Please model this.
Amino acid sequence: MPTLKDIAELVGVSISTASRVVRNDTSRHINPETKAKVWEAVRQLDYTPNESARHLVNKQKAERKPTKQIGCIIQTARLNDDHPYYSPIITSFTKKILESGYSLAFIHTSDELADDALLHRCIHEIQVDGVILVGEVGPAIVEYLQKAEELALIGICTNGTEITMVDYDRIHAAKSAVDHLIAQGHQSIGFVGGPGHTGELGSEERFQGFKFAMYDAGIPLNKDWIIDTRWEIDRSYERVMEQLKRTDIERPTAIFSASDQLAIPAMRAIIESNLSIPEDVAFISMDNIDFAQYTTPPLSSVHVPKVEIGMTAAATLLDMLKGEQPQLSKVLLPHKLIVRQSSTYQRN
Model:
């Protein structure tokens, strides 16, 4: 088995430095580049940080037995029990695996697992059979998980990764929403959203769907009203309010939002500017969270089958663990346009 000495020699640091990195000892500053090199050596050499764990890894490699445990890694730092989008997915996923005799060993955000020691502990000490990734958890985490032996992976909206995915067609769903606005007579449509897996707005599939609909209809994009909120609710309100106060740009007659959570504060900015929805600015959005039907006016939205996505992801992962599902596939579930009063004003 590799030792701390092997890691230290590979990286070119002292054994004590290698030990502090692996133990996540923050009592002395260590250059971030050095830390990254140490963790890369840990992965490369398949090092396990304590003697008892090393014996356990040896035994499990010789005779790997299922632990009946599943892990969950989620993108958002705002993880809570009532998150309007993620909660139904995780709840339905958990329900399905519990019914099948498995348990959920951990739920961590990608921010938490930026701590390499915690990531290493979750995968090599807890010993889960599979992991579900929800959202853009980052390429470093995905790459680390892909290197783990006999670990089944499934993702939901983990774009840019080569793992099995369960999702819905974001491009087509967004295009259907914008097509609805265009059918209502709108020729000036704004966008409120956030970046995709590359960190740029252009890689976001809902933004791509928005652009496709506009191009198909021959409607030019109004760059002043393409708002990147970085998926921050407060920023949605602030940026829309800023644009509304400008006198040098034309206000759009409609706005497409990449999520209900961004649409609701944007709608508040419209109302506080003494404008009416949908008479002055129509709204349509994505996700159809429960609260969308209770806004004033009720928000038109594309229904995303969140419960079904969680159930299907669980069933697919369980099939993978039984060897009944390919290790690389993509399952897309149907979406549905829900038209409410925020987008149905008939313009002359």
In short: The chain has a mean pLDDT of 87.
